[in-house]
Amino acid sequence: MTKTIIDxxxxxxxxxxxxxxxxxxDNALRHSVGRRLNQAWYTRNGRWDYNKKGVHIFxxxxxxxxxxxxxxxxxxxxxxxxHELPGELExxxxxxxxxxxxxxxxxxxxxxxxxxxVSASVVPYHVGVEDFDKGTTFQKKYSFNLDVHHLExxxxxxxxxxxxxxxxxxxxDYVIPADTTAEKAIEIAARYPNKRxxxxxxxxxxxxxxxxxxxxxxxxxxxxxxxxxxxCSFATETLVEAYRENVDHAVSAAGYxxxxxxxxxxxxxDHGEFLFDRSSPIPVVEHLHPAKTYTEExxxxxxxxxxxxxxxxxEAEEPRxxxxxxxxxxxxxxxxxxxx
Length: 340
What we know:
By secondary structure, the chain is an alpha/beta fold. It contains 13 helices and eleven strands. The protein has helices at 5-10, 20-25, 27-42, 73-83, 99-107, 123-128, 137-142, 178-191, 211-217, 223-229, 236-260, 296-299, 327-336, and strands at residues 64-68, 88-93, 112-119, 148-153, 163-166, 171-175, 196-201, 265-268, 274-278, 285-288, 300-306. The strands form three sheets. A seven-stranded mixed β-sheet has the order 2-11-8-1-7-3-4. Strands 5-6 form a two-stranded antiparallel sheet. It has a two-stranded antiparallel ribbon with strand order 9-10. The radius of gyration is 20 Å and the shape is globular.
């Protein structure tokens, strides 16, 4: 018989009365149990593989879909005003609180030969294309066949302005800036004028690219986790400012794409972000984006629609052959994004 999430929680030391004092005094244990119970709540004790209240992106009307990874609705709304982005802003509910979950729930089983996917994130390749003998946790849970006309992996050959994140104990590799991703996407859109275009921008996701974030990364590649565990100590306000800088960076690039791309463009996110907010229904303090946790902070995402008088004429064609890329390169990028 398959174990449910509740069963797994009860299999842990909490089952023993002798260990109940540990649950009260041990912050890490209390957080872990609270997170697992919340995941059980949102997935109907494991019966939901994804957030069934979320929108299916391929049932929506768009020519170009720009994904800002980990972008919260409230922060996007503020940044949109600062950058004076055109269009009508609403929100949608995402199908996942983490990128692999969002990808699987939207792309699995879909024949998308009219779509080109330009990604600065390694995750679409990792769960949708890459073949590992043993497989990572994310592949085991979320792997699927990414059946698009073409997947452009920008992370494979980082540009000169790719930003490295260093500290004394770890190199978190590099991340491609949002404006560079936008420029590359415009070039690729010109090569595929009759295809729907998905542009996956890494920011606001870690690593942080702004001045506050770069100062933080001199001490830690994973500042939220390190602050939570006590390995480092950053003020929440400082971490939030680093996140806000990344949102601004991403929204600026999104505005440029609205100006340059032909057709109806939608700006959205795969999921949001916890910034030491309290989760629910168990009110543990959370950070970043744990899987299968469908709170407003994580699944309420922007949906900015910029209409155009000139829509694309979309045509499906046989996919270009996808090649297996360096596993070392994909693993380093997964580490840079905090997935391993």
